[in-house]
Design goal:
This protein is α+β, with helices and mostly antiparallel strands. It has three helices and three strands; from the N terminus they run αβαββα.
């Protein structure tokens, strides 16, 4: 996965938007997820049927955190 603003090989904004849809769809439908602290990754897994199932995240200090409950991940 890469940041769409840094995807130079994608020809145009429509291609970048297609990539966003594909990435989000993949996050929503995966059985296991390892994400970063980005809001995009968090929103993608939050839309899974079981958001906290098989979920881990790398924090800014590169430490892997495994979640058992999504309330730990989504602090408002």
């Amino acid at each position: 996965n890469a940041h769409i603003d840094r995807e130079h090989k994608l020809e145009n904004d429509c291609s970048k938007l297609d990539k966003v849809f594909l990435d989000f769809h993949t996050l929503q439908n995966c059985d296991a997820a390892v994400i970063s602290e980005s809001g995009f990754g968090q929103l993608g897994v939050w839309n899974r049927l079981e958001p906290s199932k098989n979920l881990a995240m790398f924090n800014k200090k590169q430490k892997l955190i495994v979640f058992n409950d999504t309330s730990e991940l989504f602090i408002f």
